[in-house]
Prior knowledge:
The protein is of the alpha/beta class. Helices cover 49% and strands 11% of the residues. The chain has 2 domains: 6-64 and 153-183, Rossmann fold (3-Layer(aba) Sandwich), CATH 3.40.50; 71-137. It has helices at 6-18, 33-38, 50-55, 66-101, 105-108, 114-133, 156-163, and strands at residues 23-27, 41-45, 58-60, 168-170, 179-183. A 5-stranded mixed sheet has the order 3-2-1-5-4, with helices on both faces. The relative contact order is 0.17.
Amino acid sequence: MAQLLPDEKYSAIAELQEAGHVVAFVGDGINDSQALVQADLGMAVGAGAEIAIDAADVVLVRNELWDVVTALALSTATYRRICYNFLWAMGYNVLGIPVAAGVFYPSLRLRLPPAMAAMAMAMSSVCVVVSSLMLNRFERVHGKNPPSTHRPFHPTSFLKAKRKGYERVDSSDQHRNMEMLCVVERDDH
């Protein structure tokens, strides 16, 4: 929602939150700080006012609205990688620790010497770190038609939300008075 007074922005966000929506707000001015704090996710533009930067959860370094989409896509990719690493480490330890402790030795005659168990634990950590480094392959979202490969969150999600009336964007001047309010819909498949 654009061209609103600070109290109106705050009220609009509070209404959406009361309706059960997760709300993200992007702003760059002094009048956006109250809305940035109220929103579930507040994003400030790095070239904006210092108070807006302090009030925000995320600071976008450049003055491009595509960085909002990139930040959401990167956070989704990071969260998925954390879950993947957690499952990998838990599975590895659930199997490895009982074998190293000799739990299966009486029934299966399966055991792991202590030196091999130590190497296996070190390899578990190395695998998690290497998996995390895969985030370096993340590509920034830019332009009107970014490639959709490896994109858990795609800009078309914003367009779908806009058709449903969840997003109102004032994009008349992308570099000044940059404000955006959107409801982030979760796709829990």
